[in-house]
Amino acid sequence: MSDKEVLMSIRNLVQTFNPGKRNEVRAIQDISFDIYKGETLGLVGESGSGKTTTGRSLIRLYQPTSGSIMYSGQDIAKLKHGSKDMLSFRRKAQMIFQDPYASLDPRMKVKDIIAEGIDVHHLAKDDADRDRQVAELLSEVGLNASHATRYPHEFSGGQRQRIGIARALAVQPEFIIADEPISALDVSIQAQVVNLLKDIQDRQGLTYLFIAHDLSMVKYISDRIAVMHYGRLVELASADEVYNHPLHPYTKSLLSAIPVPDPSLERRREPIAYSAKEAEEDGKERDLIEVYPGHFVFAAADEVEAYKKAAEANHQPA
Ligand SMILES: Nc1ncnc2c1ncn2[C@@H]1O[C@H](COP(=O)(O)OP(=O)(O)OP(=O)(O)O)[C@@H](O)[C@H]1O
Hints:
Blueprint: E1 6-17, E2 25-36, E3 40-44, H1 51-58, E4 66-71, E5 74-75, H2 84-92, E6 93-96, H3 110-114, H4 116-120, H5 127-140, H6 157-169, E7 175-179, H7 187-204, E8 207-212, H8 215-221, E9 224-229, E10 232-238, H9 239-244, H10 249-256, H11 263-268, H12 276-280, E11 286-292, E12 295-300, H13 304-314
Parallel strand pairs: 3-8, 3-9, 6-7, 7-8
Antiparallel strand pairs: 1-2, 1-4, 4-5, 9-10, 10-12, 11-12
Helix pairs in contact: 5-6, 6-7
Bound molecules: adenosine-5'-triphosphate.
Adenosine-5'-triphosphate is lined by residues 17, 25, 27, 45, 47-53, 213.
């Protein structure tokens, strides 16, 4: 992984809502990580752990409270609204949303939904060029040109998510944040949409941040996985490492909550409970520390040695 090119480098990112007020929420509490060019980084964690806030902060739908987000030599956290640099970044980084029903304007024709970014960024020479680009995008996501003049309600959930994907692709982005892109879809459709995202990534060399609370699909699509808990990253490693050799107790507890297909095994399994509050009452300062090549764990200085030993033991030949 170390020879990979970094696309985005996030350092000490903090996002506090309503700071200083009674309803203050510290949604992101000082997270640092890199996103490599061309990878899919899965971001998992329970509802409320701060995944959506992270995604939205990275593409500046929110102004971060503090910290830096380096992208192509620029600190995205410092870009000014309406500036040329912001407009140019907005084109490079796109978002696909969870709910294909809510994210498409029902009064707009599919071609106008898809072409929104083309219009904003003046990417079409004329109407014919715009129509041609829309037709190509429809084909890219497995729909056809005749769908262009229809309205969102005429489509199924899976097809609507394809329209949302086409809209994101319209501006030829480099980086896509997919925020629970399949959780609102029928299970039978989920794999199709994930496969489509993978195919598009292969064809276009895109980088994905794939947000999900459900670990099973994330494992399938992700190269690496970051586990989020209470606004912090508690573990970050390759998808295989996170699944087969999790180190942090919270990751273990998340994995223990995934049902396994074998009912007898499922009955015998002990769910692992983990409470960040209890774990942090010791007042120790913790950081995301690399305890094995490419494997990071949120740990205090005096916990690192034990994690290193555990990681090494995991890799001893049986
Ligand atoms: N705009 C906002 N104003 C105030 N608090 C917010 C805002 N957005 C999110 N929060 C709070 O920040 C915390 C993190 O929320 P966030 O939506 O990022 O979590 P999540 O992991 O994406 O959860 P979910 O899977 O439910 O979307 C929650 O406590 C949430 O209530």
